[in-house]
Amino acid sequence: MRKALMAGFLLAVAPLAGLAAQNWDATFVETPTGHRLGNPDAATKLIAFVSYSCPHCAQFEVQSDAPLRLQYIQPGTVNMEVRNVIRNPLDIAAALAAQCGPENRFWGNHRALLRAQEEWMEVAVNASPAQRARWTTGTFGSRMRAIASDLDFYDLLERRGYSRPELDRCLNDETTARALVAQMEADREQWAISGTPSFVVNGTLQEGVHDWASLRPRLATAGQ
């Protein structure tokens, strides 16, 4: 009897142990609209609209990364989808670089570009007229490669294991760039997004919420 009870107990707790061991922070999916991290069935679904050249977006990345992933995404209560807001050619080049390669590379690239933003934006602000001309004239691919070269995107992502030819293929992808712009326009039409970062929680735009301090309490109550 005692052995039977113990066996029954082990069978009962086994599913719970498996659930506790699931790390949703390692679940990556490229959706038709962006890139999603976390439990696809999470009660709270967060969409973050991000511009790589936006200083507040870089601040959000630094401030939110650990608490958002450890307290909300990893346990499976929240998933987050990143969508691009394209404000200028730099955003296009950064977005193409971020999503270069398999989907499991995106999130590391995304974080690396935002965390290095202060450095490469300083280069952009102080760019020479000749550099700026290279960013806006010539073929699409030549413009994107010029930005990536001048702002050290190549160096940043080569340290993450990419080769220059691999990055060139991604930066030459005008079809993907047009799709990013089309998705941004659709998002603006649906939610009237006017600033970055902006957030949608469970289908509702969070008015006036543009940083982690304001978003966190919304996530804490969204699943209740």
Automatic annotation (TrEMBL):
SUPFAM superfamilies, per database record: Thioredoxin-like
GO molecular function, one term: isomerase activity
Taxonomic superkingdom: Bacteria
Record's signal peptide: 1-20
Family annotation (Pfam families): Thioredoxin_4 (PF13462)
Domain Thioredoxin-like fold: 31-216
UniProt keyword annotations, A-Z: Isomerase, Signal
Protein name (database record): Protein-disulfide isomerase
